[in-house]
């Protein structure tokens, strides 16, 4: 969506050549295939690990929390977890921030009406996406701590924030 808005606002005369059906399907396919791959691979890695305990101090079962209860060598799972952490949070966040900042810079040169429409359209999406990214960052960061280091009440509150705030935020700030 950020790429579509970027091309539509920053390069409107090139929109039909840059945002083709083929590119839209490619972007959609990547957005669907990446989570399927990462979840499947992470679960396959986790299924191979022997468990040393069965008590999770979480509101919901997270894959990384299960990996932390493993007695075996979890090096490969940890490396893949850091890869997923980076590619799930930072790459999309930087791409979206870059796209929307470029949109706002281009619209700054326009009339007051153009600036108002750009801010009215882009800022709610940007706020929603940044809040979502921060929530995922905090939730994924929490799974890196052992259960003895973090108060269970704090873990529960952060888990609720991860589940509730982006869900409530999305309808409030989007069209």
Architecture overview:
- The protein is mostly helical.
- It has one domain.
- It is built from seven helices and no strands.
- α1 packs parallel to α5.
- The protein is elongated.
- It starts with a helix and ends with a helix.
- The model has no long low-confidence stretch (mean pLDDT 81).
pLDDT average, as an integer? Answer: 81
Q: Shape, please?
A: elongated
The rounded distance between the terminal residues' Cα atoms is 13 Å
Q: Element order, helices and strands?
A: HHHHHHH
Alpha-beta content class: mainly alpha
The major sheet is characterized as:
none
Tally of DSSP β-strands? 0
Strand percentage, roughly?
under 5%
The rounded Rg comes to: 20 Å
The number of helices is 7
User: Which range best describes the helical content: under 10%, 10-25%, 25-40%, 40-55%, 55-70% or over 70%?
Assistant: over 70%
Number of domains: 1
Outline the low-pLDDT stretches. none
Domain G-protein coupled receptors family 1 profile: 1-174
Subcellular location: Membrane
Transmembrane segments: 25-47, 79-107
Protein name: G-protein coupled receptors family 1 profile domain-containing protein
What is the secondary structure topology, with strand pairs?
Elements: H1 2-10, H2 15-18, H3 21-47, H4 63-68, H5 75-108, H6 112-142, H7 152-173
Brief characterization of the structure:
This protein has one domain (2-173). The protein has helices at residues 2-10, 15-18, 21-47, 63-68, 75-108, 112-142, 152-173.
Jot down its keywords.
G-protein coupled receptors family 1 profile domain-containing protein, GPCR1_Superfamily_Member, Olfact_rcpt, GPCR_Rhodpsn_7TM, 76% helix, mainly alpha, 175 residues
